[in-house]
Known about the structure:
The complex is a heterodimer.
Chain A: E1 10-11, E2 16-17, H1 23-36, H2 41-47, H3 51-79, H4 92-126, H5 135-157, H6 171-201, H7 214-244, H8 255-262, H9 270-275, H10 277-289, H11 297-310, H12 331-358, H13 372-394, H14 406-434, H15 440-466, H16 487-516, H17 547-558
Helix pairs in contact in A: 3-4, 3-5, 3-16, 4-5, 4-6, 4-14, 5-6, 6-7, 7-8, 7-10, 7-11, 10-12, 10-13, 10-14, 11-12, 12-13, 13-14, 13-15, 14-15, 15-16
Chain B: H1 19-51, H2 64-89, H3 93-120, H4 129-160, H5 166-195
Helix pairs in contact in B: 1-4, 1-5, 2-3, 2-5, 3-4, 4-5
Amino acid sequence: xxxxxxxxxxxxxxxxxxxxxxxxxxxxxxxxxxxxxxxxxxxxxxxxxxxxxxxxxxxxxxxxxxxxxxxxxxxxxxxxxxxxxxxxxxxxxxxxxxxxxxxxxxxxxxxxxxxxxxxxxxxxxxxxxxxxxxxxxxxxxxxxxxxxxxxxxxxxxxxxxxxxxxxxxxxxxxxxxxxxxxxxxxxxxxxxxxxxxxxxxxxxxxxxxxxxxxxxxxxxxxxxxxxxxxxxxxxxxxxxxxxxxxxxxxxxxxxxxxxxxxxxxxxxxxxxxxxxxxxxxxxxxxxxxxxxxxxxxxxxxxxxxxxxxxxxxxxxxxxxxxxxxxxxxxxxxxxxxxxxxxxxxxxxxxxxxxxxxxxxxxxxxxxxxxxxxxxxxxxxxxxxxxxxxxxxxxxxxxxxxxxxxxxxxxxxxxxxxxxxxxxxxxxxxxxxxxxxxxxxxxxxxxxxxxxxxxxxxxxxxxxxxxxxxxxxxxxxxxxxxxxxxxxxxxxxxxxxxxxxxxxxxxxxxxxxxxxxxxxxxxxxxxxxxxxxxxxxxxxxxxxxxxxxxxxxxxxxxxx
Amino acid sequence: xxxxxxxxxxxxxxxxxxxxxxxxxxxxxxxxxxxxxxxxxxxxxxxxxxxxxxxxxxxxxxxxxxxxxxxxxxxxxxxxxxxxxxxxxxxxxxxxxxxxxxxxxxxxxxxxxxxxxxxxxxxxxxxxxxxxxxxxxxxxxxxxxxxxxxxxxxxxxxxxxxxxxxxxxxxxxxxxxxxxxxxxxxxxxxxxxxxxx
Lengths: 559, 197
């Protein structure tokens, strides 16, 4: 259903038709007028407000920043091979800049934007809307994020970043990085508001919130928690920026304090909120692949909401610990970790049940192999389960893992799960978004490389954590735990994992590029159940969460 | 209309989604979380500082008068905004424009008072953590007020241009949601910083 604000109504009394405020209409008019005016390609690129186009922009830019982040990750992993000194970088501060750049890049410059891109292109179609709400704001948000991402990366590259332990970075560059980060947050917030409003207000008749497809539902839940937590990160960044500029920092802008204030966004439990939409991707893909209904749709709605609640991490700011129990030892933090593990287990159980019930249907499709997106989405859920298990282990006090590389293991596993989920999502909905087919085989291979890579990093870092290796190792043997205990060998495994993850991302990126020149895609290659696969969503009667399957079954029973 | 001609029934308008209001509610929620975070940090750092027996604000540095004056301004602005909202809902264009104009004027007055206060307070921003937090919280709230005033200005321009449709009504209600958040956030600033110090 298109967005039709009230001014679009025909006023019977004065017979005035007022359409100028209707954003969906103005979008179409703008695009048409640009073409009619002979606008240049650049003008069309910069001024496009089409949801599908914006989704592609997010995906393209997000994949490039993902590659940049993963390169930083490989370099840091390479540096960790020799814990006794700085071999790749010049100093511990430089190592720290790249180490923090990898985390910030992976979360805010890569995975979240990729999910936003997928959502921008798919969610409006899933709810039956022909455009995104506030399309101009959605476009503005993308460009703000892009410029912010460029500024952030530049800040890191010119000896800035988000502070360093030995205060060895350029203050002006640190300030620039903070400005970039604020722009990134602003862009993501604007895009999230557009997405959430589309999901809430753009639904066709009959599509109640309980019936919206699970990817859109998880976007709604995750987006709500992004709106609740990203402003907190912005508040931290503003405080650091104001304190840093032009004078000796009082406390918040001190170089050795900035990362400590912001790091909650890149670790347990906040990363669950960022990765949540992968659950929706898996639960949208698997039942369709198996030509089956999801037996526990409502339970999944509740569990994903609970995972969103658990993923609210803005309270876990250890920098502001007051006298008493530090936040990471408080009950809420520990309960959060175990609750996340239980929820992930329950969600995986639901998915496994769907797989078990529909396994017999696999043979009825093309070949007898499960489709690549289904395989990847199931693996993504397994990675999420592994991440939640590591998160739970990490808070067990006797293991003493809180400050160790187990923190990095949990972050990498969670964001890796989100990435593999996004790979599955782009393989699944890519034909709809780009209108061109891509190689499912290459997509699967790239996905498997990423899964193996993420697992190798996660397992190696967890075991290193048990051996006492710090989360940030710097250039000091003191942070390495016990070098004779096998940490060095595990760091080699983590390096190989990092390289494999980078190879997987490169494969995914190459497959995306190949898609641009691929053959035209069929309208509905999977026999989809939800509205994004309908030729005209406004003609579909929605009486359940799978309206196209209903129509198919109805037609089957009628004949 | 000729007698006997059949009149086609006018279709009832669709129940249209109030996109602007929902979007504004999401954005306002995010803005409130921003200040919620700053208040939490203020409270946490204050407790920590006082627990160590250190000074928070210097004695007599934060007076109640400027904060109280600003609070009164915002309270009046909340009432005028309610008036604007009421007028928009009842399609009273003239009163709606007057009320919105007054609210914008009070918003500008609030910004003016804040700037004056910053010049008058005599505490450098880097005096200690308390003053840094004071400047950040009050300063970012001034920015929020400025955004609301700009938004009101745009709605006023539309109103002067003769836009009195349902869309205009939604715009006024949307800007009122944001404005009430501005006033609510200031109320907490007044209570936390000026009263409780």
